[in-house]
Amino acid sequence: MLAAEPKSCGISVGGSKARCGAHSGQGDLPPAIWDKVKKHPCYSVEAHHHYARMHVAVAPACNMQCNYCNRKYDCANESRPGVTSEKLTPEQAAKKVLAVASRIPQMTVLGIAGPGDPLANPDKTFRTFELVAKAAPDIKLCLSTNGLALPDHVDTIARLNIEHVTITINMIDPEIGARIYPWIFYNHKRYSGLEAAKILTRRQLSGLEMLSARGILCKVNSVMIPGINERHLVEVNKAVKSRGAFLHNIMPLIAAPEHGTMFGLKGQRAPRTSELKALQDACEGEMNMMRHCCQCRADAVGLLGEDRSAEFTKEKIVTMTVNYDPEARKATQAGIEAERRARIMPRQEEVQEHAGGTSDIKVLIAVATKGAGLINEHFGHANEFQVYEVSQSGAKFVGHRRVDHYCQGGHGAPDDLAAIIRSINDCHAVFVARIGGRPTSELHKDGIEPVDKYAHEFIETSAIAWFSSYLEKVKSGEIQHVDRGDGAIRQDPMMSVA
Ligand SMILES: C[S@@+](CC[C@H](N)C(=O)[O-])C[C@H]1O[C@@H](n2cnc3c(N)ncnc32)[C@H](O)[C@@H]1O
Ligand code: SF4
Ligand code: SF4
Q1: pTM
Q2: Any idea where the Radical SAM core domain is (predicted)?
Q3: Which residues are paired to 145 by β-bridges?
Q4: I need a labelling partner for 312 at 20 to 30 A (CA). Which of 16, 190, 373, 442 fits?
Q5: What counts of helices (H) and strands (E) characterise the chain?
Q6: 85 or 131, which is more confident?
Q7: Residues with CB under 6 A from ligand 3
Q8: Cβ proximity of 106 and 294 under 8 Å
Q9: What letters, b where the CB count within 10 A reaches 16 and e where it falls short, cover 417-455?
Q10: Can you tell me the ipTM of this complex?
Q11: Which of 55, 66, 181 to mutate to test the pocket of ligand 1 (most atoms within 8 A of CB)?
Q12: Shortest CA distance to 53 belongs to which of 244, 292, 289, 259?
Protein backbone atom coordinates (compact mmCIF):
# COMPACT_ATOMS: atom_id res chain seq x y z
CA MET A 1 0.00 0.00 0.00
CA LEU A 2 1.23 3.47 -0.76
CA ALA A 3 1.93 6.13 1.81
CA ALA A 4 -0.50 9.00 2.31
CA GLU A 5 -0.47 11.65 -0.32
CA PRO A 6 2.11 14.40 -0.19
CA LYS A 7 2.67 16.85 -3.08
CA SER A 8 1.94 14.96 -6.23
CA CYS A 9 1.93 15.76 -9.87
CA GLY A 10 0.00 13.44 -12.00
CA ILE A 11 0.30 9.76 -11.22
CA SER A 12 -1.70 7.40 -9.09
CA VAL A 13 -1.43 3.69 -8.66
CA GLY A 14 -4.53 1.58 -8.41
CA GLY A 15 -6.41 4.70 -7.47
CA SER A 16 -4.09 5.65 -4.59
CA LYS A 17 -2.11 8.81 -4.95
CA ALA A 18 1.65 8.55 -5.19
CA ARG A 19 4.36 11.14 -5.61
CA CYS A 20 6.00 11.11 -8.94
CA GLY A 21 7.34 13.07 -11.81
CA ALA A 22 8.66 16.54 -11.98
CA HIS A 23 9.56 17.34 -8.40
CA SER A 24 9.80 13.99 -6.77
CA GLY A 25 11.08 11.33 -9.15
CA GLN A 26 10.22 7.88 -7.81
CA GLY A 27 8.58 9.31 -4.69
CA ASP A 28 6.32 6.69 -3.13
CA LEU A 29 5.91 4.54 -6.20
CA PRO A 30 6.81 0.88 -5.67
CA PRO A 31 10.06 0.09 -7.54
CA ALA A 32 8.33 -2.24 -10.02
CA ILE A 33 5.87 0.50 -11.03
CA TRP A 34 8.56 3.19 -11.11
CA ASP A 35 10.56 0.96 -13.43
CA LYS A 36 7.64 0.92 -15.85
CA VAL A 37 6.92 4.65 -15.77
CA LYS A 38 10.28 6.34 -15.28
CA LYS A 39 11.14 6.39 -18.97
CA HIS A 40 7.60 6.75 -20.32
CA PRO A 41 7.04 10.39 -21.28
CA CYS A 42 3.25 10.14 -20.96
CA TYR A 43 3.17 8.37 -17.59
CA SER A 44 5.74 10.57 -15.82
CA VAL A 45 5.64 14.32 -16.26
CA GLU A 46 9.32 14.45 -15.32
CA ALA A 47 10.25 11.82 -17.92
CA HIS A 48 8.61 13.83 -20.68
CA HIS A 49 11.42 16.37 -20.43
CA HIS A 50 13.96 13.70 -21.39
CA TYR A 51 12.40 10.74 -23.19
CA ALA A 52 10.67 10.49 -26.54
CA ARG A 53 7.91 8.28 -27.90
CA MET A 54 6.81 7.30 -31.35
CA HIS A 55 3.54 6.15 -32.88
CA VAL A 56 3.29 3.92 -35.93
CA ALA A 57 0.15 4.20 -38.02
CA VAL A 58 -0.57 0.52 -38.68
CA ALA A 59 -4.22 0.48 -37.60
CA PRO A 60 -6.46 2.27 -40.11
CA ALA A 61 -9.87 0.67 -39.39
CA CYS A 62 -12.22 1.38 -36.53
CA ASN A 63 -15.07 -0.61 -35.01
CA MET A 64 -17.14 2.41 -34.01
CA GLN A 65 -17.70 6.07 -34.73
CA CYS A 66 -17.13 8.99 -32.38
CA ASN A 67 -18.75 12.31 -33.24
CA TYR A 68 -15.36 14.03 -32.87
CA CYS A 69 -13.33 11.84 -35.20
CA ASN A 70 -12.72 11.94 -38.94
CA ARG A 71 -9.71 9.91 -40.02
CA LYS A 72 -10.01 10.92 -43.67
CA TYR A 73 -8.60 14.33 -42.81
CA ASP A 74 -4.88 14.28 -43.51
CA CYS A 75 -2.51 17.17 -43.04
CA ALA A 76 1.27 16.96 -42.67
CA ASN A 77 1.32 20.18 -40.65
CA GLU A 78 -1.34 19.36 -38.14
CA SER A 79 -0.74 17.48 -34.93
CA ARG A 80 -3.86 16.01 -33.43
CA PRO A 81 -5.26 12.52 -32.83
CA GLY A 82 -6.26 10.45 -35.85
CA VAL A 83 -4.18 12.51 -38.29
CA THR A 84 -1.44 10.68 -40.15
CA SER A 85 0.40 11.21 -43.41
CA GLU A 86 0.98 7.59 -44.39
CA LYS A 87 -0.11 4.20 -43.20
CA LEU A 88 2.43 1.43 -42.67
CA THR A 89 2.53 -2.36 -42.83
CA PRO A 90 3.89 -4.09 -39.70
CA GLU A 91 7.18 -4.71 -41.50
CA GLN A 92 7.52 -1.06 -42.55
CA ALA A 93 6.59 -0.02 -39.03
CA ALA A 94 9.26 -2.25 -37.47
CA LYS A 95 11.90 -0.81 -39.78
CA LYS A 96 10.77 2.71 -38.91
CA VAL A 97 11.03 1.92 -35.18
CA LEU A 98 14.60 0.70 -35.60
CA ALA A 99 15.49 3.73 -37.71
CA VAL A 100 14.11 6.10 -35.06
CA ALA A 101 15.68 4.11 -32.21
CA SER A 102 19.09 4.39 -33.80
CA ARG A 103 18.82 8.13 -34.41
CA ILE A 104 16.94 9.10 -31.24
CA PRO A 105 18.44 6.93 -28.46
CA GLN A 106 16.14 8.52 -25.87
CA MET A 107 13.09 7.15 -27.76
CA THR A 108 11.85 4.59 -25.24
CA VAL A 109 8.20 3.94 -26.11
CA LEU A 110 6.43 2.62 -29.18
CA GLY A 111 2.71 3.35 -29.15
CA ILE A 112 0.01 2.27 -31.55
CA ALA A 113 -2.82 4.77 -31.45
CA GLY A 114 -4.50 4.51 -34.77
CA PRO A 115 -5.25 6.31 -36.94
CA GLY A 116 -8.22 3.97 -36.23
CA ASP A 117 -8.39 1.52 -33.35
CA PRO A 118 -5.46 -0.86 -32.75
CA LEU A 119 -7.80 -3.61 -31.54
CA ALA A 120 -10.02 -3.30 -34.61
CA ASN A 121 -6.83 -4.24 -36.49
CA PRO A 122 -5.49 -6.87 -34.10
CA ASP A 123 -3.36 -8.82 -36.59
CA LYS A 124 -1.44 -5.74 -37.78
CA THR A 125 -1.13 -4.33 -34.28
CA PHE A 126 0.15 -7.49 -32.59
CA ARG A 127 2.40 -8.44 -35.54
CA THR A 128 4.05 -4.99 -35.27
CA PHE A 129 4.60 -5.43 -31.54
CA GLU A 130 6.01 -8.93 -32.06
CA LEU A 131 8.49 -7.73 -34.69
CA VAL A 132 9.61 -4.79 -32.54
CA ALA A 133 9.90 -6.85 -29.34
CA LYS A 134 12.17 -9.28 -31.18
CA ALA A 135 14.37 -6.67 -32.86
CA ALA A 136 14.47 -4.03 -30.11
CA PRO A 137 13.52 -5.55 -26.74
CA ASP A 138 14.44 -2.39 -24.81
CA ILE A 139 11.51 -0.46 -26.29
CA LYS A 140 8.34 -0.32 -24.19
CA LEU A 141 5.11 -1.25 -25.93
CA CYS A 142 1.99 0.83 -25.49
CA LEU A 143 -1.44 0.86 -27.15
CA SER A 144 -4.44 3.13 -27.14
CA THR A 145 -7.93 1.74 -27.71
CA ASN A 146 -11.60 2.66 -27.48
CA GLY A 147 -11.99 -0.51 -25.41
CA LEU A 148 -14.81 -2.11 -27.39
CA ALA A 149 -12.74 -5.16 -28.38
CA LEU A 150 -10.45 -5.02 -25.34
CA PRO A 151 -11.80 -7.97 -23.29
CA ASP A 152 -11.11 -10.30 -26.24
CA HIS A 153 -7.42 -9.32 -26.37
CA VAL A 154 -6.31 -9.02 -22.75
CA ASP A 155 -4.50 -12.36 -22.82
CA THR A 156 -2.56 -11.43 -25.96
CA ILE A 157 -1.67 -8.03 -24.50
CA ALA A 158 -0.29 -9.73 -21.39
CA ARG A 159 1.54 -12.39 -23.41
CA LEU A 160 3.25 -9.82 -25.63
CA ASN A 161 4.36 -7.84 -22.57
CA ILE A 162 2.48 -4.69 -23.61
CA GLU A 163 2.98 -2.83 -20.35
CA HIS A 164 0.85 0.25 -21.01
CA VAL A 165 -2.71 0.45 -22.31
CA THR A 166 -4.81 3.57 -22.73
CA ILE A 167 -8.60 3.24 -22.90
CA THR A 168 -10.75 6.15 -24.02
CA ILE A 169 -13.73 6.33 -21.67
CA ASN A 170 -15.95 9.36 -22.18
CA MET A 171 -19.00 8.17 -20.24
CA ILE A 172 -20.43 5.51 -17.99
CA ASP A 173 -24.01 6.68 -18.60
CA PRO A 174 -25.40 5.31 -21.89
CA GLU A 175 -27.72 8.34 -22.27
CA ILE A 176 -24.59 10.48 -22.54
CA GLY A 177 -22.86 7.87 -24.67
CA ALA A 178 -25.66 8.02 -27.23
CA ARG A 179 -24.80 11.70 -27.79
CA ILE A 180 -21.13 10.90 -28.47
CA TYR A 181 -21.25 7.64 -30.44
CA PRO A 182 -23.63 7.23 -33.40
CA TRP A 183 -22.80 3.53 -33.82
CA ILE A 184 -20.57 0.63 -32.86
CA PHE A 185 -19.81 -2.61 -34.71
CA TYR A 186 -19.79 -5.53 -32.32
CA ASN A 187 -20.10 -9.31 -32.83
CA HIS A 188 -20.67 -8.87 -36.59
CA LYS A 189 -23.56 -6.48 -35.99
CA ARG A 190 -24.04 -2.73 -36.04
CA TYR A 191 -25.67 -1.18 -32.96
CA SER A 192 -26.70 2.44 -32.44
CA GLY A 193 -28.12 4.75 -29.77
CA LEU A 194 -28.54 3.57 -26.20
CA GLU A 195 -27.97 -0.05 -27.06
CA ALA A 196 -24.55 0.76 -28.56
CA ALA A 197 -23.52 2.90 -25.60
CA LYS A 198 -24.58 0.19 -23.09
CA ILE A 199 -22.42 -2.42 -24.82
CA LEU A 200 -19.50 -0.01 -25.09
CA THR A 201 -19.45 1.04 -21.43
CA ARG A 202 -19.78 -2.57 -20.25
CA ARG A 203 -16.86 -3.68 -22.47
CA GLN A 204 -14.64 -0.70 -21.55
CA LEU A 205 -15.03 -1.13 -17.80
CA SER A 206 -14.59 -4.88 -17.89
CA GLY A 207 -11.49 -4.53 -20.10
CA LEU A 208 -10.05 -2.07 -17.59
CA GLU A 209 -10.72 -4.45 -14.69
CA MET A 210 -9.14 -7.36 -16.54
CA LEU A 211 -5.97 -5.40 -17.36
CA SER A 212 -5.65 -4.03 -13.81
CA ALA A 213 -5.98 -7.56 -12.44
CA ARG A 214 -2.97 -8.55 -14.60
CA GLY A 215 -0.88 -5.62 -13.37
CA ILE A 216 -0.91 -3.84 -16.74
CA LEU A 217 -0.77 -0.08 -16.27
CA CYS A 218 -3.90 1.57 -17.62
CA LYS A 219 -4.35 5.19 -18.47
CA VAL A 220 -7.86 6.42 -19.18
CA ASN A 221 -8.35 9.14 -21.77
CA SER A 222 -11.55 11.18 -21.61
CA VAL A 223 -12.49 13.87 -24.09
CA MET A 224 -14.14 16.84 -22.37
CA ILE A 225 -17.14 17.87 -24.47
CA PRO A 226 -18.87 20.98 -23.04
CA GLY A 227 -22.61 20.57 -22.58
CA ILE A 228 -22.38 16.79 -23.02
CA ASN A 229 -20.05 15.10 -20.55
CA GLU A 230 -18.08 17.71 -18.62
CA ARG A 231 -19.76 17.23 -15.22
CA HIS A 232 -20.22 13.53 -15.83
CA LEU A 233 -16.44 13.07 -16.17
CA VAL A 234 -16.14 13.39 -12.38
CA GLU A 235 -18.28 10.20 -12.17
CA VAL A 236 -16.17 8.58 -14.88
CA ASN A 237 -13.09 9.47 -12.85
CA LYS A 238 -14.48 7.69 -9.77
CA ALA A 239 -15.53 4.65 -11.81
CA VAL A 240 -12.12 4.18 -13.44
CA LYS A 241 -10.26 4.84 -10.22
CA SER A 242 -12.23 2.11 -8.47
CA ARG A 243 -11.32 -0.29 -11.29
CA GLY A 244 -7.60 0.26 -10.87
CA ALA A 245 -6.80 2.90 -13.52
CA PHE A 246 -3.31 4.29 -13.01
CA LEU A 247 -3.75 7.71 -14.54
CA HIS A 248 -6.58 9.84 -15.94
CA ASN A 249 -6.01 12.10 -18.92
CA ILE A 250 -8.91 14.50 -19.50
CA MET A 251 -8.27 16.15 -22.86
CA PRO A 252 -10.09 19.02 -24.51
CA LEU A 253 -12.32 18.28 -27.47
CA ILE A 254 -10.77 19.49 -30.74
CA ALA A 255 -13.58 20.47 -33.09
CA ALA A 256 -13.55 22.66 -36.16
CA PRO A 257 -15.89 22.59 -39.18
CA GLU A 258 -12.97 22.01 -41.58
CA HIS A 259 -12.12 18.71 -39.84
CA GLY A 260 -15.40 17.32 -41.14
CA THR A 261 -16.44 15.71 -37.84
CA MET A 262 -20.04 15.63 -36.67
CA PHE A 263 -19.23 17.89 -33.71
CA GLY A 264 -17.12 20.22 -35.88
CA LEU A 265 -19.89 20.61 -38.43
CA LYS A 266 -22.53 21.17 -35.75
CA GLY A 267 -20.49 23.93 -34.11
CA GLN A 268 -19.90 22.02 -30.87
CA ARG A 269 -17.46 24.18 -28.94
CA ALA A 270 -14.21 23.08 -27.30
CA PRO A 271 -13.69 23.72 -23.58
CA ARG A 272 -11.89 26.84 -22.44
CA THR A 273 -8.49 26.31 -20.88
CA SER A 274 -9.85 27.44 -17.52
CA GLU A 275 -12.80 24.98 -17.74
CA LEU A 276 -10.44 22.11 -18.51
CA LYS A 277 -8.17 23.00 -15.59
CA ALA A 278 -11.14 23.31 -13.22
CA LEU A 279 -12.35 19.83 -14.19
CA GLN A 280 -8.85 18.35 -13.87
CA ASP A 281 -8.50 20.01 -10.45
CA ALA A 282 -11.90 18.64 -9.36
CA CYS A 283 -10.89 15.12 -10.35
CA GLU A 284 -7.43 15.39 -8.81
CA GLY A 285 -8.98 15.11 -5.36
CA GLU A 286 -9.96 11.59 -6.36
CA MET A 287 -7.00 10.62 -8.51
CA ASN A 288 -4.04 12.41 -10.07
CA MET A 289 -4.32 13.61 -13.57
CA MET A 290 -2.15 13.66 -16.66
CA ARG A 291 -1.96 17.27 -17.77
CA HIS A 292 0.84 17.20 -20.29
CA CYS A 293 -0.84 15.26 -23.10
CA CYS A 294 -0.08 16.83 -26.47
CA GLN A 295 -2.92 15.06 -28.32
CA CYS A 296 -0.44 13.63 -30.78
CA ARG A 297 -0.80 12.46 -34.34
CA ALA A 298 -1.05 8.74 -35.09
CA ASP A 299 2.49 8.89 -36.54
CA ALA A 300 4.14 11.30 -34.06
CA VAL A 301 7.88 10.94 -33.39
CA GLY A 302 10.02 12.70 -30.79
CA LEU A 303 9.69 14.38 -27.43
CA LEU A 304 6.11 15.27 -26.51
CA GLY A 305 5.33 18.59 -28.10
CA GLU A 306 7.83 18.14 -30.91
CA ASP A 307 7.04 16.32 -34.10
CA ARG A 308 9.86 14.77 -36.08
CA SER A 309 7.61 12.49 -38.17
CA ALA A 310 8.63 14.29 -41.38
CA GLU A 311 12.21 13.03 -40.88
CA PHE A 312 11.01 9.42 -40.96
CA THR A 313 8.68 9.09 -43.94
CA LYS A 314 8.38 5.75 -45.78
CA GLU A 315 10.44 7.20 -48.60
CA LYS A 316 13.25 8.30 -46.29
CA ILE A 317 13.26 5.10 -44.25
CA VAL A 318 13.80 2.94 -47.33
CA THR A 319 17.10 4.72 -47.95
CA MET A 320 18.21 4.89 -44.31
CA THR A 321 20.96 2.63 -42.99
CA VAL A 322 19.65 1.36 -39.72
CA ASN A 323 22.20 0.87 -37.01
CA TYR A 324 20.24 -0.13 -33.93
CA ASP A 325 22.84 -0.29 -31.19
CA PRO A 326 21.37 -1.36 -27.84
CA GLU A 327 24.59 -0.63 -25.95
CA ALA A 328 24.78 2.94 -27.26
CA ARG A 329 21.10 3.46 -26.38
CA LYS A 330 21.71 2.09 -22.90
CA ALA A 331 24.68 4.42 -22.40
CA THR A 332 22.69 7.49 -23.51
CA GLN A 333 19.82 6.60 -21.23
CA ALA A 334 22.16 5.90 -18.29
CA GLY A 335 23.58 9.39 -18.83
CA ILE A 336 20.08 10.87 -18.74
CA GLU A 337 19.28 8.98 -15.54
CA ALA A 338 22.49 10.12 -13.82
CA GLU A 339 21.73 13.70 -14.78
CA ARG A 340 18.13 13.37 -13.57
CA ARG A 341 19.29 12.07 -10.18
CA ALA A 342 21.92 14.79 -9.83
CA ARG A 343 19.38 17.49 -10.64
CA ILE A 344 16.38 16.22 -8.71
CA MET A 345 18.02 16.12 -5.27
CA PRO A 346 19.05 19.79 -5.09
CA ARG A 347 15.67 20.76 -6.54
CA GLN A 348 13.85 18.87 -3.78
CA GLU A 349 15.98 20.56 -1.14
CA GLU A 350 15.25 23.95 -2.63
CA VAL A 351 11.50 23.29 -2.63
CA GLN A 352 11.68 22.27 1.01
CA GLU A 353 13.57 25.43 1.88
CA HIS A 354 10.73 27.55 0.56
CA ALA A 355 7.93 25.29 1.72
CA GLY A 356 6.11 25.49 5.00
CA GLY A 357 5.12 29.15 4.81
CA THR A 358 1.64 30.29 5.62
CA SER A 359 0.60 32.07 2.44
CA ASP A 360 -2.22 30.44 0.49
CA ILE A 361 -1.43 32.46 -2.63
CA LYS A 362 -1.12 30.36 -5.79
CA VAL A 363 -0.12 31.76 -9.16
CA LEU A 364 0.34 30.37 -12.64
CA ILE A 365 3.49 31.00 -14.63
CA ALA A 366 4.13 30.24 -18.31
CA VAL A 367 7.50 28.87 -19.40
CA ALA A 368 9.16 28.90 -22.81
CA THR A 369 11.09 25.62 -22.99
CA LYS A 370 12.56 23.24 -25.53
CA GLY A 371 12.68 20.45 -22.94
CA ALA A 372 15.04 18.91 -20.38
CA GLY A 373 13.17 20.84 -17.67
CA LEU A 374 15.01 24.06 -18.53
CA ILE A 375 13.98 27.61 -19.40
CA ASN A 376 15.72 27.47 -22.73
CA GLU A 377 13.46 28.97 -25.38
CA HIS A 378 13.18 32.48 -26.81
CA PHE A 379 9.70 33.98 -26.28
CA GLY A 380 9.33 34.58 -29.99
CA HIS A 381 10.30 31.01 -30.95
CA ALA A 382 8.00 29.18 -28.55
CA ASN A 383 5.46 26.82 -30.13
CA GLU A 384 3.96 26.31 -26.73
CA PHE A 385 4.27 27.45 -23.15
CA GLN A 386 4.34 25.02 -20.27
CA VAL A 387 2.21 26.25 -17.40
CA TYR A 388 3.12 25.68 -13.75
CA GLU A 389 1.07 26.43 -10.66
CA VAL A 390 3.40 27.84 -8.01
CA SER A 391 2.67 28.05 -4.31
CA GLN A 392 4.57 27.54 -1.09
CA SER A 393 4.29 23.81 -1.57
CA GLY A 394 6.26 23.95 -4.81
CA ALA A 395 5.84 24.25 -8.55
CA LYS A 396 3.42 21.86 -10.22
CA PHE A 397 3.10 21.37 -13.96
CA VAL A 398 -0.57 21.94 -14.84
CA GLY A 399 -0.68 22.04 -18.63
CA HIS A 400 0.58 23.66 -21.75
CA ARG A 401 -0.67 26.20 -24.25
CA ARG A 402 0.16 25.69 -27.88
CA VAL A 403 0.51 28.83 -29.95
CA ASP A 404 1.43 29.61 -33.50
CA HIS A 405 4.88 31.05 -33.97
CA TYR A 406 4.83 34.73 -33.21
CA CYS A 407 8.36 35.43 -34.39
CA GLN A 408 8.99 34.33 -37.98
CA GLY A 409 12.35 35.85 -38.86
CA GLY A 410 12.23 38.34 -36.06
CA HIS A 411 9.09 40.36 -36.78
CA GLY A 412 5.82 38.98 -35.52
CA ALA A 413 2.52 40.45 -36.58
CA PRO A 414 0.85 42.50 -33.83
CA ASP A 415 -2.23 40.24 -33.91
CA ASP A 416 -0.10 37.15 -33.34
CA LEU A 417 1.52 38.74 -30.31
CA ALA A 418 -1.89 39.67 -28.92
CA ALA A 419 -3.04 36.06 -29.44
CA ILE A 420 -0.01 34.67 -27.64
CA ILE A 421 -0.51 37.01 -24.72
CA ARG A 422 -4.20 36.05 -24.57
CA SER A 423 -3.19 32.38 -24.42
CA ILE A 424 -1.31 32.96 -21.15
CA ASN A 425 -3.43 35.75 -19.69
CA ASP A 426 -4.19 33.79 -16.52
CA CYS A 427 -0.43 33.70 -15.74
CA HIS A 428 1.40 36.18 -13.52
CA ALA A 429 4.75 35.80 -15.29
CA VAL A 430 6.30 34.25 -18.37
CA PHE A 431 9.78 32.74 -18.03
CA VAL A 432 11.92 32.89 -21.15
CA ALA A 433 15.52 32.46 -22.26
CA ARG A 434 15.27 35.76 -24.17
CA ILE A 435 12.62 38.24 -25.14
CA GLY A 436 12.46 41.33 -27.35
CA GLY A 437 11.48 44.87 -26.42
CA ARG A 438 7.98 44.98 -27.92
CA PRO A 439 6.68 41.76 -26.36
CA THR A 440 8.19 42.89 -23.04
CA SER A 441 6.22 46.10 -23.05
CA GLU A 442 3.01 44.45 -24.32
CA LEU A 443 3.23 41.79 -21.58
CA HIS A 444 3.72 44.50 -18.95
CA LYS A 445 0.62 46.30 -20.24
CA ASP A 446 -1.35 43.09 -19.63
CA GLY A 447 0.07 42.68 -16.15
CA ILE A 448 2.25 39.67 -17.05
CA GLU A 449 5.87 39.90 -15.89
CA PRO A 450 8.43 38.75 -18.45
CA VAL A 451 11.25 36.99 -16.58
CA ASP A 452 14.51 36.28 -18.38
CA LYS A 453 16.95 36.25 -15.49
CA TYR A 454 16.68 32.46 -15.10
CA ALA A 455 17.67 31.69 -18.70
CA HIS A 456 18.92 28.09 -19.08
CA GLU A 457 18.16 27.27 -15.45
CA PHE A 458 15.69 24.69 -14.11
CA ILE A 459 12.04 25.57 -14.35
CA GLU A 460 10.98 24.54 -10.88
CA THR A 461 13.82 26.01 -8.87
CA SER A 462 13.53 29.25 -10.84
CA ALA A 463 9.76 29.34 -10.38
CA ILE A 464 10.13 28.84 -6.65
CA ALA A 465 12.86 31.48 -6.34
CA TRP A 466 10.74 33.97 -8.30
CA PHE A 467 7.68 33.11 -6.22
CA SER A 468 9.54 33.71 -2.93
CA SER A 469 10.48 37.20 -4.06
CA TYR A 470 6.92 37.74 -5.33
CA LEU A 471 5.60 36.89 -1.85
CA GLU A 472 8.17 39.21 -0.24
CA LYS A 473 6.97 42.08 -2.42
CA VAL A 474 3.33 41.34 -1.57
CA LYS A 475 4.18 41.20 2.15
CA SER A 476 6.07 44.49 2.04
CA GLY A 477 3.23 46.19 0.16
CA GLU A 478 5.43 46.85 -2.88
CA ILE A 479 2.89 45.06 -5.04
CA GLN A 480 -0.65 43.85 -4.54
CA HIS A 481 -1.54 40.25 -5.32
CA VAL A 482 -4.22 39.99 -8.00
CA ASP A 483 -6.02 36.74 -8.70
CA ARG A 484 -5.73 36.24 -12.47
CA GLY A 485 -7.42 32.81 -12.52
CA ASP A 486 -10.80 34.31 -13.36
CA GLY A 487 -11.63 32.10 -16.31
CA ALA A 488 -10.94 35.03 -18.61
CA ILE A 489 -9.18 32.96 -21.25
CA ARG A 490 -11.16 32.61 -24.40
CA GLN A 491 -10.31 30.02 -26.94
CA ASP A 492 -8.82 31.75 -29.91
CA PRO A 493 -9.43 30.09 -33.27
CA MET A 494 -5.64 30.22 -33.86
CA MET A 495 -4.88 28.30 -30.76
CA SER A 496 -5.43 24.81 -29.51
CA VAL A 497 -6.17 24.51 -25.85
CA ALA A 498 -4.11 21.90 -24.11
C1 LIG B 1 -7.22 8.80 -32.49
S2 LIG B 1 -7.58 7.93 -31.04
C3 LIG B 1 -6.91 6.35 -31.44
C4 LIG B 1 -7.15 5.30 -30.42
C5 LIG B 1 -8.56 4.77 -30.30
N6 LIG B 1 -9.23 4.63 -31.51
C7 LIG B 1 -9.36 5.63 -29.32
O8 LIG B 1 -10.27 6.31 -29.76
O9 LIG B 1 -9.07 5.56 -28.14
C10 LIG B 1 -6.49 8.55 -29.80
C11 LIG B 1 -7.16 9.49 -28.81
O12 LIG B 1 -7.52 10.68 -29.46
C13 LIG B 1 -8.78 11.10 -29.01
N14 LIG B 1 -9.38 11.97 -30.00
C15 LIG B 1 -9.70 11.68 -31.28
N16 LIG B 1 -10.26 12.74 -31.89
C17 LIG B 1 -10.30 13.73 -30.97
C18 LIG B 1 -10.78 15.06 -30.99
N19 LIG B 1 -11.35 15.59 -32.06
N20 LIG B 1 -10.67 15.80 -29.86
C21 LIG B 1 -10.09 15.28 -28.76
N22 LIG B 1 -9.63 14.03 -28.68
C23 LIG B 1 -9.73 13.25 -29.77
C24 LIG B 1 -9.51 9.79 -28.82
O25 LIG B 1 -10.63 9.95 -27.99
C26 LIG B 1 -8.44 8.95 -28.20
O27 LIG B 1 -8.41 9.15 -26.79
S1 SF4 C 1 -12.68 5.10 -31.56
FE2 SF4 C 1 -10.80 6.28 -32.00
S3 SF4 C 1 -10.41 5.96 -34.17
FE4 SF4 C 1 -12.48 5.23 -33.77
S5 SF4 C 1 -13.79 6.91 -34.29
FE6 SF4 C 1 -13.36 7.11 -32.12
S7 SF4 C 1 -11.51 8.38 -31.95
FE8 SF4 C 1 -11.71 7.74 -34.07
S1 SF4 D 1 -1.42 11.61 -27.24
FE2 SF4 D 1 -0.94 12.11 -25.09
S3 SF4 D 1 -0.75 10.12 -24.13
FE4 SF4 D 1 -0.57 9.76 -26.35
S5 SF4 D 1 1.62 9.88 -26.84
FE6 SF4 D 1 0.80 11.92 -27.09
S7 SF4 D 1 1.16 12.87 -25.09
FE8 SF4 D 1 1.32 10.68 -24.77
Answers
A1: 0.81
A2: 48-297
A3: 167
A4: 373
A5: 15, 18
A6: 131
A7: 42, 53, 111, 113, 293-296, 304
A8: no
A9: bebbbbbbbbbbbbbbbebbeebbebbeeeebbbbbebb
A10: 0.98
A11: 66
A12: 292
